[in-house]
Amino acid sequence: MAKPTSEQLTKINQKALQPLTDDQAHVFQARIIGTKRIDKYKMKITPNFLRKMADQVKEGVALLVDHPWQKWDALSFPYGRTFDSRIVEEGGELELYGDHYMAKGLEANGISTDQLATGIDSGTIFDTSAGFVTTKHNCSICGGDYFRGAECSHMRGQEYEGKECLVLADDGYIMENSIVFDGGYEGAGITRGSLSIKPSVESESQQKNEYEQLPLDAKSLDGDGRVFYFFSNKGGMNAFVSKQHQTLEQAKTQAEGDDTVTEEQKAALAASQTQTIALTAANSVLGQVRATLGVENDADITSKLATLSAQAADGAVYKTKVTEQACGAGVRALGEAFNTETMKAMLSHLPVSEIEKIGATYEAQAQAALGGGGRHTEGDNPDLPAGAANGTAPTNTQAAGQKTPEQLQTEAKEAARADAIAALKNTGRSNLLKEDK
């Protein structure tokens, strides 16, 4: 790990009670946090809050390992401290970088600063995570306090007129920056589920009541209104509150039982809740509609529906045409035995492709029943059978192998019926085809 420069050493020794030499300190730089959208909690750090954190990092905040404070009953031992900061613009967003130092040879809880320095130099320790508190939470849509229902009825993550609602953290303070690990050390890592750790039996009730994770549907904060965060560049962020949060339903219940709340305030809270629930449901439905239609914006839904409606109308006309053609072929194949109305009712439940197959079957059987159709003479040469001209009954050597029209009609009826049953079975509607009487 690099030694501090003379300028860095001067800043470090402004923090140290006993001056350090360049051989007694490890230094490194880390990106701590920035103004990019934080997906998990649908929030952003404002430039105003980031600048305040930069000042606090420059003054010096603790360098910890794996956020021990968020376990509440664990010992939080600082292995180092920040001594300088800078804000850099990257990709249109602001990023806070901090310079950290550790005194060589320190050891606590089985971890030494020299071990940490070796891990950083070798690249096996590469992730840092900021622990901070927010005290001001603005809605990106209306600008009101997001956790005060009277000021804001929007829900984070939902879109309003094409703009996403985000919680803008505009004030607070940074408590520490932690070195965190990805495996290799039991219990360490990017701690995403800190509150799932079992507390001691003696303090379980107190801790459960006073510290719990902040869900995304929370719309009010009890107590001092602080939200605690620990943030990782890789693992995202976890948030929890020092006292029980309130959802909209809980806030409404409390207001109804609070004598200090006026009827007008109760009515406003109820209206706010109703509006929020309705907007949340509407946005959820719109999201499903957009996904189904394959469009990105709400404005495209109407035009897409108009196109689909026109296509559906054309499809209905074509289906009627194909059904009429199939029934016409059925009449030619079966004559009076073909029940047109019943067949139309059955075909109405089938897709066009199946109706076309049934129509083709009827048409083939009609051609067979009618002898192939078309003209049977050519010019003046009718090619009559021998003896036909003098009244003698013609002989037909193939008569034994030919079928009567009645037989052909029966075969056509059975073949068409089998096709119809098969098609209806594919759609689960075989019960619509009744047995012939």
Topology:
Elements: H1 6-15, E1 25-34, E2 43-45, H2 47-59, E3 62-65, E4 80-90, E5 93-103, E6 107-108, E7 111-112, H3 113-122, E8 127-139, E9 159-160, E10 163-164, E11 167-180, H4 204-210, E12 212-213, E13 218-220, E14 227-232, E15 236-241, E16 246-247, H5 248-256, H6 263-293, H7 299-334, H8 340-347, H9 352-369, H10 405-426
Parallel strand pairs: 2-11, 3-11
Antiparallel strand pairs: 1-5, 3-4, 4-5, 6-7, 8-11, 8-14, 9-10, 12-15, 13-16, 14-15
Helix pairs in contact: 5-6, 7-8, 7-9, 9-10
Given helix and strand content, the structural type is: alpha+beta
Number of strands: 16
Q: End-to-end distance, in Å?
A: 96 Å
Strand content: 15-25%
Mean pLDDT: 74
- Estimate percent helicity: 25-40%
| Low-pLDDT residue spans | 182-209, 374-382, 387-400
- Tally of individual helices: 10
What's the gyration radius in Å? Answer: 40 Å
Q: What best-fitting shape do the alpha-carbon axes yield? A: elongated
Give the tally of structural domains: 3
The major sheet is characterized as: 10 strands, mixed
- The H/E string reads HEEHEEEEEHEEEEHEEEEEHHHHHH
Please tell me about this protein's structure.
The chain has 437 residues and is of the alpha+beta class. It has 3 domains: 6-244, no CATH class; 249-294, no CATH class; 296-372 and 403-437, no CATH class. 38% of the residues lie in helices and 21% in strands. The protein contains 10 helices and 16 strands. Strands 1, 2, 3, 4, 5, 8, 11, 12, 14 and 15 form a 10-stranded mixed sheet that branches. Strands 6-7 form a two-stranded antiparallel ribbon. A hairpin with a 2-residue loop joins strand 9 and strand 10. Helix 9 runs antiparallel to helix 10 (405-426). It is elongated, with a radius of gyration of 40 Å.
